[in-house]
Amino acid sequence: MEVRVGVPHMGNFYIAFETLVRELGIIPVIPPRPSRASIEFGISHSPEFICFPFKATLGDLKMALELGANTLVWFESAWSCRFGYYGRLQHRILKDLGYEFNSLILSGNPIDAFRDTRKVLKFDIMRFVKAVRIAYIKSKAVELTEKLAFNTRPFELNRGDTTRVERTALQLIRKACTVAEIRHLRGRIVGMFKSIPVDRTRNPLKIWLVGEIYMVLEPEANLHIVEYLGEHGVLVRPFTTIHNWTFRSIRAGRYGPEGEAHARKLAKPYLPYCLGGEEQLSIGYTIMAKRKGYDGVIHLHPFTCMPENIAYPILQNLSTRYDIPLLSISLDEHTESVGLLTRVEAFLDLLQQRHTNG
Q1: In the record, which residues are listed under signal peptide (predicted)?
Q2: Can 4-120 and 201-357 be said to share one CATH topology?
Q3: DSSP per position, 59-115
Q4: Low pLDDT (below 70) residues in the chain
């Protein structure tokens, strides 16, 4: 039987995943971005108080099955965060609803994940190495595109230019087939962003975005807050990238002056242990934001997220101690863009006043 593999969305993760699977000779099935309909399905069939990312990704998996996927991939871990149990519970829910498919639940250990993947998908080792290499290089090109967009959007003269260029660049990366083609694209993408009319004399507000990783990286979950902030003159910095998350098992984004290891070190006096999510990173990067001269921090998290709710009072304390404004936003399926953007606008007004007064 022809293997058709589906996976839920999180930011631009699908570009590297699609490449990896296709290079292994397997058909990837990429569902549409999370929509009201897919999220409603997730809400209807999820435990009531489970976090929003579970509901949204359950809807993604259902859409992948309806598009012809016969194997679903997800990840597990021993974290106390419920993310580590999503896959098994979601797959059980879908099978109870009558869907038939093979489950591939990948361990956080890269060796175990490789073994389990090979057992289900049956590929040659050298072909796998080549596939990972191409997916990695393509993922780095996606990261470059995202960073260029973050650093261009606050300066654009015509609102929306950066977003249009970013979407075009991502589609070009997605279509690229070889390492040489991807590397050639990197220079072309830099040129595309340089062609955007900008005003570099502006002195934008700078905001660091921290919180639960899905809510920070998935634009449909955070109501496109990164684009909104950039188009309103804010230089926004998410605490990580989808590339670092995808390849964290090989230390991507872990070290360096702004790496995860340094952020966790900064957080340890306030929270000595990792609770399973990104709570230590939220604390560490808030401290880092102050040290690097950022104007404020926005903290995004699902309504029932245990690790981030534990981090929140610590973040409040740090906001007072380090005199850095903090806006903590709890998101779920009931969040409306009007209410969210009203809070963000008020926060930007506060930051602008502080920025102007020096």
Answers
A1: none
A2: yes
A3: HHHHHHHHTT--EEEEE--S-SSGGGGHHHHHHHHHHHTT---EEEEE-SSHHHHHH
A4: 77-80, 108, 249-253, 358
